[in-house]
Amino acid sequence: MLKIGLTGGIGAGKSEVSRLFAAHGAVIVDSDVIAREVVAPGTDGLAAVVTEFGPQVLREDGALDRPALGAIVFADPERLKALNAIVHPLVRARSAALEAAAAPDAVVVHDVPLLAENGLAPLFDLVVVVDAADEVRVDRLVRLRGMAEEEARARMAAQASREERLAIANLVIDNGGGLAELAARVDEVWAQLARRAAA
Fold it and tell me: Residue 67 class from Cβ within 10 Å (0-12 exposed, 13-18 middle, 19+ buried)?
C-alpha cells in the first residue's frame, strides 16, 4: 500500500486532481467529506458538538447549522480548539478505517486541505502538492466560485503559503494551465505512484 498525502491551496485544483486519481483507481480518503460525515444527524459526533456548543448550532431538521457553528468558532480560537478536539479524532479514526479496508497494493490518496498547516507530511509515504500561481488561483475563485477578489485573497492568506506547501512536496502537479494539461500531468504522476505501490 502506498499512502499519499494530497494537498493544494484554495483554487489550485486539488479536488479535480483527486477526482482524476480516483478515475485511475486510487482509494480516496477525503478529510472534508469525512468531517461532514462524522457530524451527520444521528452520529455521536453531532451529539458531542451539541453538548459542547448548545442546541443553537442545529437547524430545524436536526442537521448541523454550519454557519451558526462557524460564527462561534471562527470568532474565538479556544472554541475552535474545542470543536477540533471533537471532530479531528473522529476524522482520523474514519480515515484509518477506510485505509485499512483498502487492498494491499492500493494507492490510498488522503485528500487533506490543511496538510502543510497541520504538519501532517510525516504521516504519508509521499506528499503530492497541486500548485498554481497565486494570480491564477485568485482568478479561478472569482470567476468560478463567485468570490469577491478581497475574499479570495483573504482565504488564500489564511492558508499556508505556496512556498510552505512546495517545501513539503515529493511530487508537484502544476495546474497553471487547462484541464487537458492537468489530466496529462496526473497521468504521469499516477504512473509513478502505481509503479511504487506495486514494488
Answer: exposed
* pLDDT average per 10 residues of sequence, the chain (199 residues): 95 95 96 94 96 96 93 88 94 93 94 91 97 95 92 88 96 94 97 91
Does the global pTM surpass 0.70?
A: yes
What's 64's DSSP letter?
Answer: B
Rounded Cα distance between 91 and 25, Å, is: 23
Q: How far apart are CA 112 and CA 118, in angstroms?
A: 10
Q: How many CB atoms lie within 10 A of CB 18?
A: 22
Q: Which cell numbers hold the place of 4?
A: 499519499
Go through the chain and tell me how many residues it has.
199
